[in-house]
């Protein structure tokens, strides 16, 4: 009974999901994510650009983790793929990687040696 209710909720949620930008979410790609931030009564759109180092593929709760270097410090942020706060995902560059999780990049100084860009 409980399992059937969860499936019904997931089916209804799939109807509201816009999947047009989600083809870019693959490990190794560099993407720019535009998402809404609410500060008090104001709402603005902020952009976050980084390398996708991992993805979690669950039914309606898919997430991806972006990594970038900000002021010499590595910053990672996790985004839910089907969030209504994400307004746009733009592909900046594609790369060919042979791993599904790129956590080893945290320890590297030069990322360009290990990630081949597709032109």
From TrEMBL:
<dbReference type="Pfam" id="PF01245">
    <property type="entry name" value="Ribosomal_L19"/>
</dbReference>
<dbReference type="InterPro" id="IPR038657">
    <property type="entry name" value="Ribosomal_bL19_sf"/>
</dbReference>
<comment type="similarity">
    <text>Belongs to the bacterial ribosomal protein bL19 family.</text>
</comment>
<dbReference type="InterPro" id="IPR018257">
    <property type="entry name" value="Ribosomal_bL19_CS"/>
</dbReference>
<keyword id="KW-0689">Ribosomal protein</keyword>
<dbReference type="GO" id="GO:0022625">
    <property type="term" value="C:cytosolic large ribosomal subunit"/>
</dbReference>
<dbReference type="GO" id="GO:0009507">
    <property type="term" value="C:chloroplast"/>
</dbReference>
<dbReference type="InterPro" id="IPR001857">
    <property type="entry name" value="Ribosomal_bL19"/>
</dbReference>
<dbReference type="InterPro" id="IPR008991">
    <property type="entry name" value="Translation_prot_SH3-like_sf"/>
</dbReference>
<protein>
    <recommendedName>
        <fullName>50S ribosomal protein L19, chloroplastic</fullName>
    </recommendedName>
</protein>
<keyword id="KW-0687">Ribonucleoprotein</keyword>
<dbReference type="GO" id="GO:0003735">
    <property type="term" value="F:structural constituent of ribosome"/>
</dbReference>
<keyword id="KW-0934">Plastid</keyword>
<dbReference type="GO" id="GO:0006412">
    <property type="term" value="P:translation"/>
</dbReference>
<keyword id="KW-0150">Chloroplast</keyword>
């Amino acid at each position: 009974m409980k399992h059937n209710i969860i499936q019904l909720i997931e089916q209804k949620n799939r109807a509201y999901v816009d999947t047009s930008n989600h083809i870019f979410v693959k490990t190794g790609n560099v993407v720019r994510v535009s998402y809404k931030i609410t500060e008090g009564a104001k709402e603005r759109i902020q952009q976050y650009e980084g390398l996708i180092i991992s993805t979690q593929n669950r039914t309606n709760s898919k997430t991806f983790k972006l990594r970038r270097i900000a002021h010499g410090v590595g910053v990672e942020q996790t985004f839910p793929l089907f969030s209504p706060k994400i307004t746009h995902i733009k592909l900046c560059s594609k790369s060919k990687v042979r791993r599904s999780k790129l956590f080893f990049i945290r320890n590297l100084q030069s990322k360009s040696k290990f990630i081949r860009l597709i032109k």
